Amino acid sequence: MSSMSSVAGLSKYIQTLPVTKKSITSICILSFLTGVIYCLIAPQYSITNNLFLEGLCGFMVLGVSSIMSGSLNQYGVKVLHGINLKIKHSMFLSLLSMVFISLILIAGGIISTLFHMDLFINSLLFGCVLVYGFNTLVLWSTTQIGFSKSAIIAFIQPILILALLVLILFLGSDASLFSTPLIINVTIKTMIACLIFILAIYSFISIAASPLKKNLGIGMLDLLSLFIMHMNEGSDRLESTFKDMGEPIDTIVTFISFRGANGIKSLFISPSVHPGPLGNIGGSNMPTILANKFDHFTMVAHGPSTHDFNPISVSEIDKIENCVKDGLENIEYSKKASKFKRYTMNAANIGVQFFNRGMVILSTFAPNGSDDIEFGVGLTMMTQSISKCDVKDSVIVDCHNSFTPESGEVLPGNPEVFDLIDIIDKIETEEEFSSIRVGCHADTMETLDKHDGIGESGLKTMIVEVDNQRTAYVLFDSNNMEIGFRQEIIDAVKDLDIDEIEVMTTDTHTVNTLSRGYNPVGIEKRHEIIEYVIKSIKEAIDDLEEVEVGTGTKKIKNLNTFGPKNSTELISTISSVVAVSKIIAPVLLITALFIVFIWIFYGNLQIIG
């Protein structure tokens, strides 16, 4: 699996949290049950030795304090101008923290019964310390309020729990139990335990964050918090971080224009710009945004490019639009086109069709898995085909239609590159041209969405008819295609009134905000998707009309992208941080847990028993 696939896969940990009402209901029920369960397993160490009253005490100590902390945490972060922590997030965090404490209390109750010792207070303190550290980590890494402020707000829930416990014990017990030495004892032991735990957390974050800061000048927690903000709210503030590390490049956009009686009927664009990185950040939705900038049917295919060429902001797509529109003003049209032909060389497969003074090359490695074709490789294909076939423009398309988790990019030096170079030498220069008819159809596939791997533009189909041969150009607004699904589509449309078909994807990364990370079309609902393809081909055939055609190539200057070095370094650095964290985090946190456990249960400052 590529490094980008590993990083994209991290998005599976971003899930939709329950609404506030459900979290509060869960807090009330679980806190009451905690009191009841503790009374059942350790009745001799419970406060009242009555199931209902113990449940009520559990609700008061754990439930009420957690509900209050859920509200106070959110309010505190809001006052400090933090981000991401809405009330449903804050209440769920309190619920999760309360569950941790409940489990520790129940475990303490079991041990108390087995070994005949009262561990209730110590277990509660241990749980509160762990929750304090956990809350500090969550608030610090997601809200952008800083470590010290996060550490202060994280105290709210543990303090409320301990304060309500003291109040209940005071009202129901001998007040002499709450002597000054005991209070000092509990306070000192808790403060030291909290300090030990958050020092471990601070050390872990400092170590994990240093590579990104050193290599790219990006704060890891800033990156994480803005990423979460984008996932939750669709915010584009993450683009500001990318602007600090981006660099301008020059690249190209190629296009084919089909002009009918009423003007341009169809526009086929292949920009050497990558539609990433994910969600709606940068150029992730470029295929739809760019297509919508034109008043006619427009297909934006995937040109040769990798994540190095991700635009750092949506506004950069305007530069592609301007280049295409400038090129359309000078385009030369004619009614000359050739039939569609296929060529194969080892793993490489291409479909070639000539249009006027240009040509299109649809490249795929299906049935083998593959990922992005690097720009330099695509540029080589372009210059070689222009020279070999004596054309003015060569529109290179990475069909991006055969994905496996192990799929890798096609980079200089790979065997696939030489297959592509050799296969271009096999292309026969076309001498016979005929008139051309084109029909188009667009379908947003309303019953499917990004959960099914379908982006905003859905499905676009263009039928090109030359000398009684009909070729279907089928383009999904998707990020690659599950391996084997391309052939399944081809087999399913054999009985339709077409002679050739190629299935492509735009490589949109708007579908990558989901649990799968990468989310190729065809994982689910294949039959439904094929029905859309069949319908779209039929509609496009009905739309056929005679057209003129012309091709064009324009250079895009100063396009601000991640950049060849920064993109690779960002991905590799994040991958390294994840790998190293898997080792460092357990070592530091388990060590801290062990020290805190020993300190609370066996420290010199004994609290009970």
From TrEMBL:
Keywords: Membrane, Transmembrane, Transmembrane helix. The keyword Transmembrane applies. Residues 8-595 form the DUF2070 domain. The keyword Transmembrane helix applies. Pfam families: DUF2070. It comes from the Archaea. The chain crosses the membrane at residues 24-45, 51-72, 92-114, 120-140, 152-171, 183-204, 583-602. This is DUF2070 family protein.
